[in-house]
Amino acid sequence: MSTDTNQEAREQLIDLAAEFYDQFEGGEIPSMSLPTRTKSNIEYDEEKGVWVYGDRTSRRSANSVRGAQKLLKAVYTIEFLADQLEEDRSSTLRELYYLSESWDNDNAQFNDQDESNQLIEDLEIVSEVTREDFHMRPEESGAKVMGPLHIREQTNRGERDIHCQLDVGQGGYQIPNNPDTIEFLDNDADFVLCVETGGMRDRLVENGFDADYDALIVHLGGQPARATRRLIRRLHDELELPVTVFADGDPWSYRIYGSVAYGSIKSAHLSEYLATPEAKYIGIQPADIVEYDLPTDPLSDSDINALESELSDPRFQTDYWEEQIELQLEIGKKAEQQSLAARGLDFVTDTYLPERLEAMGVL
Q1: What is the tens place of the pLDDT at every residue in 68-122?
Q2: By C-alpha distance, which of 43, 51, 73, 49 is closest to 60?
Q3: Helix pair 319-331, 251-261: axis angle to 10 deg
Q4: Is 115 part of any known ligand binding site?
Q5: Structural domains of the chain, with CATH
Q6: Active-site residue, selected from the candidate residues 76, 98, 213, 281
Q7: Is 196 annotated as a binding residue?
Q8: Can you tell me the distance from the alpha carbon of 27 to that of 105, in angstroms, rounded to the nearest whole number?
Q9: pTM (2 decimals)?
């Protein structure tokens, strides 16, 4: 990351701490206003196609012991992040939790990692600086890309030029914590295929799907990390590549698609940065379960509740999703991506994906 970006992020943090100081100096009780981060304060922006926070706010104030402790922890964290940026260092969210154990005020130490994670999210919202620009990293997500894309990555050891097909092994190119450090040099891909499971991703690579169809295969690794979603958004916006999502045929996988396409409640303050509303869902569809007579498992009670919840979710209130979800509730079954192997190991790359992609207008 450039020195200018570091300095800008640092100044935003220091400005936030200065607000607390000004409140003290003016005889006010220090406080910090944040959007209320509950489902009832999430609005679906029809124009942008993403989840955003509504107008309801809550105030963190030092007028109680608990509130004062929260602001104290915020100040200590701001100081740590400002120093980290000054030194051009980085740390993980897990390390921040443990680092607080060394702070000289016991009241500033975090009780658990959920508390430190939430504070970082709070600071993102009020400072309008992402945690990536704070140089805060999650634990490794392991998400990778395979396909005809030539990039330049900025690292702490200098620039690296990498072709995500020719210069990598079977495992592919690992997505960095901050994909904005990547420069796209050249691209021969026709579309992006986001794949939920590692087993299916490996099948596609082994069968040469990326080379045969000029596809950028992005492994989501279950619920995709922010870095993965950010890279997908950039591939769509900057390279004008269609984005498709290939996941298991169950309600939890539909939510994985939803997080790629529309954003999530937890990261609603970053929906325009992370979500790709134009992303299309390939499958597994409930209709595929019927058409191909796939091996299945019965829907559990939690599956049924999740499907019924999705019927009232703005992200899934389209004719397509209503038809598919109602069909799934009717047949009472779910299926994994790899159930397609019941028709042979090459069926997914020779028949299923090409036919679906053609029907969707991608091929």
Answers
A1: 788 888 888 888 888 888 888 878 788 888 888 888 788 888 888 888 888 888 8
A2: 73
A3: 160
A4: no
A5: 3-42+56-136 (1.10.10.10), 144-359 (3.40.1360.10)
A6: 98
A7: yes
A8: 24
A9: 0.76
